[in-house]
Every structure is written in C-alpha cells, then in structure tokens.
Known about the structure:
Mean pLDDT: 94
Number of domains: 3
Number of helices: 10
Distance between the termini: 68 Å
Low-confidence stretches: none
Helix content: 10-25%
Strand order of the largest sheet: 9-8-7-10-11-12-13
CATH superfamily of the largest domain: Vaccinia Virus protein VP39
Number of strands: 22
Strand content: 25-35%
Shape: globular
Structural class: alpha/beta
Radius of gyration: 24 Å
Amino acid sequence: MGRRKELPVFSKLEILDAGSEGKAIARVNDRVIFIPFVVPGDIVDVKVVRKKRSFFEGRAIHIHHYSDKRTEAVCDHYGTCGGCKWQNMDYKHQLFYKQKQVRDNFERIGKFDFPEILPILSSDEQFYYRNKLEYTFSNRKWLTEPPSREAPEENMNGLGFHLPGMFDRILDIQKCYLQNDLSNDIRLAVRDFALENKMSFYDVRKWEGLLRNLIIRNTSTGEWMVIVVFHNEDEQNESLLNFIMLRFPELTSLMYVINGKKNDDISDLDVVLYSGQAFITEELPAFREGRPPLQFRIGPLSFFQTNTAQASDLYRTAAGFAGFTGDETVYDLYSGTGTIACYIAPYVKKVVGLEYIPSAIEDAKRNAGLNNITNTEFFAGDILKIMDDSFIEKMGRPDIVITDPPRAGMHEKVVRQILKIAPEKIVYVSCNPATQARDIAILSEHYRVEKIQPVDMFPQTQHVENVALLVSSEW
C-alpha cells in the first residue's frame, strides 16, 4: 500500500475575504482555501487539512501579521465551540462582510439587476441577544486539557453544545455570551446537581442515559421557560425538576419531555407542564405609533425569531417595503406562528397565512386572538398544494405576497406558482441570501428588485437576514 501523500503547507498567505460559512478565504493560484478563526488582512501560514477538487480546507499554524480588523474574542470557548465564529472580528467589519455577502450572492447567483443595497441594520446588542438556547447532555465531553489519572469517570459528563462535525461530542460550556446570564446560572446548576446525584448523561452511540437536552427560552418582558428532555421515566426526574423549581423561583414555566427516540426532535412528543404556565409571553412594538404592542404566546415548541429586538427591525422593514394602503389582501407564506401576519394585519384588509406545520398554525390562530385580530386566516399543509387555483378564487388574488422561507428557500414550483398568481408586490424575507438570490432570479422574469435591506440578527456570526422588495414589471 502506497504512503499517503503529505498535504501541503502554504507560507505567508493573505486572508482576502470572510466567507458565508464563517470561514475566511485565501487563494493559492486559482484555488480557494477556507480557513477558520482568522480575519481579512491577516498574513498566515496555512496547513491544508482537506483537499477537494476545486478548493482546500486549512488551518492557520502561524500568524505573521495581525489584521487591523481584529478584536479580542471575549469568550473562553472561542476557537473550540462552533458558534460565534466572527467573534475575533471588530463589529463594524462584521457588518461590512455581511452586506458584502448579500451583494456577492445577488451578483454571482442571481445575476439580475438590483439597486444599491441599503446599509445593513446593526444590532444594538452584540452579546446576550438570543431568547432561546438548546444544550445537550453527553457522557463524551470534549477534553480541552489532558485528563488526569485520578479523574473520576463522571468527569467525562458535560452539558453544552455539539462540536462542529462531531455528532457524539459536546463542549462543556462554562459561560455563553449569547443569552442573559440567568441562562448560564440555570445550565450550571442543572449540570452540577446531575453530577452530584450521579444522574446518567446521554450516550448517543448506545442510545442510553437519562439526561438528553436542556432548552432555555426567555422574553424581553422578563419571563423564562425551561424544558428538560429525559430519555425515559425515572424517579430521579422528579428530584431534578423539583430542584430547578425551588432553585429558580423566577421561572415562568418549567416543563419536561420523555424522548426515547434515536433523534433529538421533540416536535412530535408530549411536553408536560411541571410548574408555572404553559407559555411565556413576548411583546413587539406595533408597526405604527398609536397602537399597543403586539403580544405573542410562546409555547415549548413555538417558533419565534431568536433575536427579539432585531425581529422588530426585520418586520418593520418588511411592512415598510410593502407600503400598505389599507385595502390589500396579503398572503403570508411560511407564516410560522403568525408573527408577521399579526404584525401587518391592522394595516391591510386581509392576511392569509400558509405554513407546513399544523402546530405552528394553531399558535398563529391563538396569537391573532390574543391581539384581537379578526382579519387573518391560517392554513396548514404543503404550500404548493394549498395555493392552487381554487384556493386563490376562494381567498382572493393577493395584492402582496410576503414570504419568509427556511434556509433552503422556496421550492421552484412554489416560485412558479407565485409568478402565476402575479401579485403586484413580493416582499422576500430570507435568512440565506444565496437561496434568496436563486429564487429571485426566477421571479425576475416578471419582477424587478426595488429595495434591498440586510438586517444583522446574529452578531458574532456570519449569518445575515435580508429583505428584498420585488415589484411587478407590469405595475
């Protein structure tokens, strides 16, 4: 058997760009190299760790020159944890590369004409901005230091985030800067109680162990929800839940789930209320002054934008782009729990919300009722199958379509159906400018792009939301 070919090392490469996957970009001849944890302007030596046909993946083994775009990462877990990959880049430069990401995708993937992109809306809070985190229990935590011979076996137990590319390894988190510090207090207290009481942490390889996940949600109004996911019924479950209830009396809601499946999805399982209320309540300011804030009840399985403050900017942008006069029929595609539908309902004639997930539609109906909104209708199922000719005839042709699909974007048949329906305006809200550009390229057959507004929902990461206004060429 021949010897494995040694992968190359490249010296003094300049980091040229920041990529959409959180890795920076350098070039050798015509080949791109993706490198994590460096920033544009760094001069580095790079060891190639993976060789593909058209690109390399590498890691920096020495930095000759530090870029002026750098800043000191505040988190002790930076460089190991898979989140917050841009934490070593000054925030103003993060914003620059997020805006560039939108432009590059529209130019390279979309290849349609578009106006100058509006300056990205920055986040006032660059840390502690998330309202939901999910942690994983594991008996195979990642050791950041060599193990001690005297270390007891339970020291391999940890509670934190999955390491990138490792389904069976988690990083035991000491302090996370993404959610209010009470989240850290809860996680550490739960972990320590479990260790002290010798509760078993989940083994994903053997599908055994009592503790699986810990989900923590909070709202801008100060309410908190904790959900503990157990693998099976056990007398220790009660002791942990009772400890949480007594240790954190400020919790609005404490729930648990029994998940004996071989995956972590709990959307098809019963969530049991242990103490408090079955929901927490979030508020968003109304689109226009003079109206009370909207309230949204968030259950254990409800979807809600994870950065509440920036969600307000995102929805305000979408509503502003639509330019409502008060007489429009609006279709809200991928409406989730009806957040956008409820947000715009006071300013239009009717909103029709369509969503795949039935439980989300039930949330949407409850949220409409909570806000005394009577001009919304919601339908669950495959959007392509629902939005046929008979549905359009019954509901009325939309004057405006607002679409906020998942990262994969819209199915091409849905895009073609929108073209067939021919609304005057389309407001496309996206968490992935690449698939957004792909879809708009099809829509550009009959629509022109009039406005583009990036919104930074996730500081310290490469992710960017983007809102685009499309207007019919015939309008």
